[in-house]
TrEMBL record, chain A:
This is Electron transfer flavoprotein alpha/beta-subunit N-terminal domain-containing protein. GO terms for molecular function: electron transfer activity; flavin adenine dinucleotide binding. InterPro entries: DHS-like_NAD/FAD-binding_dom, ETF_a/b_N, ETF_a/FixB, ETF_alpha_N, ETF_asu_C, ETF_asu_C_CS, Rossmann-like_a/b/a_fold. PANTHER family: ELECTRON TRANSFER FLAVOPROTEIN ALPHA, ELECTRON TRANSFER FLAVOPROTEIN SUBUNIT ALPHA, MITOCHONDRIAL. It comes from the Bacteria. The keyword Electron transport applies. One of its GO terms (biological process) is fatty acid beta-oxidation using acyl-CoA dehydrogenase. FAD binds at residues 207, 232-233, 246-250, 263-270, 284. Keywords: Electron transport, FAD, Flavoprotein, Transport. The lineage of its organism: Bacteria, Candidatus Coatesiibacteriota. Residues 3-182 form the Electron transfer flavoprotein alpha/beta-subunit N-terminal domain. SUPFAM superfamilies: Adenine nucleotide alpha hydrolases-like, DHS-like NAD/FAD-binding domain. Belongs to the ETF alpha-subunit/FixB family.
TrEMBL record, chain B:
The keyword Transport applies. This is Electron transfer flavoprotein subunit beta. Keywords: Electron transport, Transport. PANTHER family: ELECTRON TRANSFER FLAVOPROTEIN BETA-SUBUNIT (PTHR21294), ELECTRON TRANSFER FLAVOPROTEIN SUBUNIT BETA (PTHR21294:SF8). Belongs to the ETF beta-subunit/FixA family. Residues 24-216 form the Electron transfer flavoprotein alpha/beta-subunit N-terminal domain. It comes from Candidatus Coatesbacteria bacterium 4484_99.
Length: 315, 263
């Protein structure tokens, strides 16, 4: 079986969720030949040493900026003579934007937003939470044919280490008249903090934080833990945190190793975004708060006492 | 500006999801309250704002959905959309995003349009696929998860900012394009009483597959299917740590390191 994983990069670094795709393929499809597929005029050096069997470098100077239109065109051109059995793409901004377009271009199925792979004899089913995680679907293609799957960050273990893959360069000519967006500017807004959707640890605040100034404290805690700051919808609607940090049904769906909920009641729409976290800690003054029903460790106390102590003890 | 807003009716965010005993890939719809997909509400609101700003054209709502979806359509009409089309046929009950996008593209390619607006995601299937497939099938650009938009009617271009991982970017494209709307883009308006009255009176034509010129069997178009739905793994309530704050924090850190092994 041939599995291709799409490696997203920014010219310098490889995105961590893409390394998890390799980890997932290794774990669930141990027999597969794994090929990393990377697009751009230049690709990061790290890609050349990924622990996979082969590398395909899809090369064109029109691929310097990511656009779904040019990238899907280039990938479909590069693959048109040999479509692998499975193409894995991370459910990041780029992956979510690219995968459906690519699937339509290649006319193959896409099973998106997956959190696991189930292999049973030769049947492959993908695990896909639906209804905000209130049901877990086992999804498959209707025909026995190649398919694409997008995988949510933190679903699989990442890989490190190096390999000695075969590198193949595929030059693609992208027509000038392709109907596409033009990228005017790209801005980094989170600095050195990981994105909420990808961070291994997320410290989240809700209405119990009382005001925007108190989120500084959560940032500090996130920093010592190497994590990111999340927020409930109430905190976002109050304007205490930007929308991009909202966790929940109308925010981000995340599954970090550790989720620390501070002053969050645990409404169903909030739980939709975080209940698949591996370990949940809740700090809330109300012993009846819903969040305690799903928390592995609960602290019924004032977060303004607990959080500073956590920062102190962990520093 | 003629704008098409694609919407879907979905179970309420608090609805209890139970699987059907006779068909484990389906949910029990009885007792579920259905609502307009929250992200599609942002889509309709944005289309209204664009129409108000550019001053002309019509907003047409399209949905593929059973009869109950009329309520969601009327909610959109009450907000201020001009027309609506519902596509339905009983063979469409289990269609996937690809087939949804295909039917939408067949409908839309027969219309005059400058812009297509979709919600970021349907909160029932949670697939985030339809808008991007639709854009590809219509061979037009897509700009997803926008945080602002600006249309230049004389140049016929749209410039949007988008939320991307760890930042934002600004892109521009020639119309027509497909854009998708996340939460935070706008605050959807409440329909006025007059809006509601007018919406009630509007005709909502229903198109069948035959009307769209589709002769294939829908089952042959569908690419993915749900084999089984199960309840999520249940999380049991864990331990409440008790004691003085200092003791509790020390104990928590110990447990996170030694028991949960997440630090
Ligand atoms: C369509 C729809 C979509 C939604 N989507 C989302 C979503 O994506 N994400 C989301 O989060 N919500 C979402 N919601 C909203 C959700 O229903 C809740 O209203 C929201 O999650 C509540 O936020 P909260 O827990 O911060 O606030 P509250 O429910 O007000 O809870 C605040 C908590 O803080 C505790 N507290 C107060 N002071 C302290 C203190 N000093 N120390 C410790 N604890 C303290 C209180 O005991 C309380 O439990 C959605 C709702 C709808 C209808
Ligand atoms: N049945 C449908 N009818 C019309 N539009 C739809 C339908 N399903 C999905 N869409 C549109 O596509 C968006 C994303 O849906 P999905 O790909 O299912 O997550 C929705 O927010 C709608 O705008």
């Amino acid at each position: 079986m041939k599995v291709y994983v799409f490696i997203e990069h920014n010219g310098e670094a490889v995105r961590k969720p893409c390394l998890e795709l390799i980890g997932g393929a290794r774990k669930h499809l141990p027999e597969a030949e794994i090929t990393a597929m990377c697009a751009g005029q230049e690709i990061p050096d790290r890609v050349r040493h990924l622990p996979v069997d082969n590398i395909i470098h899809i090369k064109s100077d029109a691929l310097t900026d990511y656009t779904s239109e040019r990238h899907s065109y280039a990938i479909s051109e590069a693959l048109k003579n040999s479509i692998p059995d499975i193409i894995l793409i991370s459910a990041t901004f780029q992956g979510r934007d690219l995968a459906p377009r690519l699937s339509a271009k290649l006319n193959i199925p896409l099973i998106s937003e997956c959190t696991g792979i189930n292999v049973d004899n030769s049947n492959i089913n993908l695990i896909h939470p639906m209804f905000g995680g209130r049901a877990i679907a086992s999804v498959s293609t209707t025909k026995d044919e190649p398919f694409i799957a997008t995988i949510r960050p933190n679903a699989f273990p990442s890989v490190d280490g190096e390999g000695n893959p075969q590198i193949e360069e595929v030059k693609v000519d992208i027509p000038d008249d392709i109907q596409t967006v033009e990228v005017l500017s790209v801005e980094d807004t989170t600095g050195d903090m990981p994105d909420v959707a990808e961070a291994p640890i997320v410290v989240s605040g809700g209405r119990g934080m009382k005001g925007p100034e108190n989120f500084k404290m959560l940032e500090e805690l996130a920093k010592v833990l190497g994590g990111a700051v999340g927020a409930s919808r109430s905190a976002v609607d109050e304007g205490w945190m930007p929308q991009s940090h909202q966790v929940g049904q109308t925010g981000k769906t995340i599954s970090p190793n550790l989720y620390i909920a501070c002053g969050i009641s645990g409404a169903i729409q909030h739980r939709a975004g975080m209940s698949s976290s591996k370990c949940i800690v809740a700090i809330n003054t109300d012993p009846e708060a819903e969040i305690f029903k799903i928390a592995d460790y609960g602290i019924v106390s004032d977060l303004f006492k607990i959080v500073p102590l956590m920062i102190e003890k962990l520093s | 500006m003629n704008i098409i807003a694609c919407i879907k009716q979905v179970p309420d965010t608090e609805a209890i999801i139970r699987t059907d005993a006779t068909n484990p890939s389906k949910i029990v719809e009885r007792d579920i309250k259905f609502i307009l997909n929250p992200y599609d509400e942002y889509a309709i609101e944005e289309s209204l704002r664009i129409k108000e700003k550019t001053g002309n054209g019509e907003i047409t709502i399209i949905t593929i959905g059973p009869e109950r979806s009329e309520t969601a359509i009327r909610d959109g009409l009450a907000m201020g959309a001009d027309n609506a089309i519902r596509i339905w046929d009983d063979t469409l009950a289990d269609i996937d995003p690809f087939t949804t996008a295909l039917l939408l593209s067949k409908t839309i390619s027969q219309m005059e349009y400058d812009l297509i607006i979709c919600g970021k995601q349907a909160i029932d299937d949670d697939y985030i696929q339809t808008p991007s497939i639709l854009a590809e099938l219509l061979s037009i650009p897509q700009i997803q998860f926008i945080t602002s938009q600006e249309i230049n009617t004389s140049e016929r271009t749209i410039t949007c900012t988008q939320e991307i991982d760890g930042g934002r970017r600004t892109v521009r494209a020639k119309l027509p394009v497909v854009i998708t709307t996340p939460k935070g883009l706008n605050e959807p308006r409440y329909p006025s009483l007059r809006g509601k009255m007018q919406a009630k009176k509007k005709e909502i034509p229903v198109k069948s597959l035959k009307d769209l010129g589709i002769t294939e069997n829908v089952m042959d178009l569908i690419k993915i299917k749900t084999m089984k739905l199960s309840p999520p793994p249940s999380r049991k309530a864990g331990r409440i740590l008790e004691g003085e704050p200092e003791e509790v924090v020390i104990e928590l850190i110990r447990l996170l390191r030694e028991e949960a092994k997440v630090l």
